[in-house]
Design a protein that fits this description.
The protein has about 210 residues and is an alpha/beta fold. Helices cover about 40% and strands about 15% of the residues.
């Protein structure tokens, strides 16, 4: 039975960090209350990705937080991660579901109500919707309005998370949207104190509910 909480969905970015510093920041974010962790690596080789995922998985298991692998079904299977997240240009959700089975968490990116409905019908367990604000990550972003976010929440019965440039100071726009949580990258990864940043972001989001 899948059991996961998307309240504070932490998405990693190892750019500019040594492996030791990166793993330290991952652990600090989990100490601060991250409830789901997505390992996102766009530039690593498959072997490098698997190696890092194994190390991250050791940490996430310690905190009983599911590890989600971005894009790569093969990497997720190699390390027995709890799930994957698939963008619009990645493997279709229904194909991934056939490969991974019913027990794994499959998240999908949706920017429109039709995309959200398609992902849900094809077996997605949760959705990431955005970008709400411009981001500094290497991922291509198209801004999504808060009204669209609300419409997606109403359209599907699975958890919907907002993503894109979110931090504790600009999250108020998400009040009354009905989302299950927020996805955060830079506000935690680049923070002087990732543990404190996680605590503050989580506290701020919960105050909006």
């Amino acid at each position: 039975m899948k059991n996961f909480d998307t309240t504070l969905y932490f998405i990693t970015d190892s750019t500019g960090f040594s492996e030791e510093e990166f793993l330290c920041r991952v652990e600090q974010a989990l100490k601060g209350g991250a409830t789901l962790l997505q390992l996102r690596e766009k530039d690593k080789t498959t072997r490098e990705y698997i190696s890092l995922a194994e190390k991250v998985h050791e940490i996430t298991k310690k905190y009983n937080v599911p590890l989600i692998i971005d894009d790569r079904i093969d990497v997720a299977m190699a390390v027995d991660a709890e799930g994957v997240h698939l963008g619009q240009s990645d493997m279709p959700v229904d194909t991934a579901r056939r490969i991974l089975g019913d027990d794994k968490i499959i998240g999908a990116t949706a920017k429109t109500v039709p995309q959200a409905l398609e992902a849900y019908r094809n077996g997605a367990d949760n959705l990431g919707v955005g970008a709400i604000y411009p981001t500094t990550t290497k991922v291509k972003t198209v801004l999504t309005s808060v009204d669209t976010l609300k419409s997606i929440v109403k359209a599907v019965p699975i958890p919907v998370n907002a993503i894109g440039g979110l931090n504790k100071d600009n999250m108020s726009v998400l009040k009354d949207t009905g989302i299950s949580g927020v996805c955060v990258v830079s506000a935690i990864m680049k923070a002087d104190n990732p543990q404190k940043a996680s605590e503050e972001i989580k506290e701020k989001f919960l105050s909006l509910k």
